[in-house]
Specification:
eight-stranded mixed β-sheet, globular, alpha+beta, about 25% strand
Length: about 260
């Protein structure tokens, strides 16, 4: 550990080894323990067995993250084990979603990804940070949306990490059956698109998650599964990323 300013609260404290993608997602969903812990790393577009960690946060901020991570871990297990079509959630889901998107964006910024190169100067950075520090009640207009996909043929739960849709300014992260989509530039959406997006928005007050058992291959069928045609295209590109990696024979679940 090193002593330097915490990337969230700004305090001069010893920084912890933080997982960019939550440890529970790696251990219980993604990692193939029979193959040395290999998993499908969406951020790299290939198989890896290395958990991505960074010395970003102090112990106190890590504890804040851990509360929402425990909640989402239990929610994920319910979704996997049960066959319900909907699941209630509380405000901790948004806490988790923002912390996950925050970490993913920081990761891509450190990797010198040009989409996030000046992210720490953006409005979304400031709003997400204020929310995590409990100085804001919500993250509007830089909202985060959740799609629960149980279609493991197209989207195996062994994948983990982040995926950038530059064309539509979206950041997608996968944790088991959960796919979080962050709106990085909400001002580019039309009024009709925003109406559809609002249906999948994670509310700071809590709400209900609807399970998607099968994702359509068409981008010409508007508003299927509360998705705009553009978002359906994003998921199809993600599916293609998984398919290409799986063709190597080294992707978990490919053989």
């Amino acid at each position: 550990m090193e002593t330097i300013k915490c990337h969230l609260c700004g305090s001069n404290k010893k920084l912890q080894k933080s997982h960019v993608w939550p440890k529970f997602a790696f251990k219980r969903f993604a990692a193939d323990q029979n193959r040395g812990g290999r998993f499908a790393d969406l951020s790299l577009g290939r198989v890896s067995n290395i958990q991505c960690t960074r010395n970003w946060f102090c112990c106190d901020c890590e504890k804040i993250f851990s509360i929402s991570e425990m909640y989402v871990a239990n929610l994920c297990y319910k979704i996997i084990r049960l066959s319900h079509q909907s699941y209630p959630y509380n405000k901790l889901l948004l806490r988790f979603a923002v912390s996950l998107s925050w970490r993913a964006a920081k990761y891509f910024q450190e990797m010198n990804n040009d989409f996030f190169i000046e992210w720490d100067q953006s409005k979304s950075y400031k709003i997400w940070k204020k929310y995590l520090l409990e100085r804001k009640d919500n993250v509007d207009p830089y909202t985060i949306h959740l799609f629960v996909l149980k279609d493991q043929i197209k989207f195996p739960h062994t994948a983990l990490g982040g995926f950038i849709d530059r064309e539509n300014s979206l950041l997608l992260t996968q944790i088991g059956p959960m796919f979080f989509v962050s709106l990085m530039k909400p001002n580019i959406l039309t009024h009709d698109e925003m109406i559809i997006w609002n249906k999948s928005k994670i509310s700071h007050r809590g709400g209900t998650l609807e399970v998607i058992c099968r994702l359509t291959n068409s981008t010409n069928m508007p508003y299927i599964n509360n998705m705009t045609p553009k978002l359906q295209g994003t998921f199809l590109r993600l599916e293609e990323t998984v398919r290409r990696a799986a063709s190597s024979g080294n992707w978990p679940g490919s053989n």
